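Dear support,

I submitted the protein below through the web form. The confirmation email said the job was done, but the results page showed an empty box. After a refresh the structure appeared. I'm attaching both so you can tell me whether what I see now is the final result or a partial one.
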Amino acid sequence: MIRTTADGRVRTVTIDRPAQRNALEPTDLDALEAAVTETDASETPVVYLRGAGEDAFCAGADLDAVAGLSDPEAFARRGQRAAAAIAEADAVVVAGIDGAARGGGVELALACDVRVATPAATFAEPGVQFGLFGAWGGTARLPRIVGEGEAMDFALSGRVVGAAEARRMGLVSRVTDDPRSVTTEIAQNRPDALCVVKERLRDDAGDEVRERAEAEAFGRLHGRYADDIAAERE
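What the results page shows now:
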């Protein structure tokens, strides 16, 4: 089950299956995609993705569902669509990771713009231990975020990484007792500026194309907020 609540400029999306350590069934992936896609970034510029309970952020795919798959490739595609919805959302998506993130849970976190862990957070890609691997876009995003060497070690070993090591690797950007506080910090900023900065940072075009688009976006925002900028100088 995917549950959503709104509080001012932050929309909280909760993976709410604590008895299953927030493991996801196929319909949960569709609901997660919809929850993020339907967020209006002009009104709610920040989405906070979390897991219910205190045991896990998300344990990945529900293994009962995986065992009974008739079309595993289609299931992988559903997970990829959910992760892509997170990565491509106009809103900034912050993962608040408390407890275990495993397999697909790591991959959904990798799709988020900001990953914040509590000291109790742990991360692993254990699928290799029983002959599978995460296929929700993680093999593409992980090396971009932590570098190829760290990605190989983490993904091929299946080992569990704690919050401090995840911070050292660059898997998360902060470790704090209150990950949600980061959403409040981000949400205080201008929604359209957040959208543009996310778009520019996510752009994987060549440097010349990116720099031209960056200058154009800066010009748009400057024109929109010229008076406010001038007021800041007074």
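Response: this is the final, complete result; the empty box was a page-load delay. Residues 189-233 form one domain.
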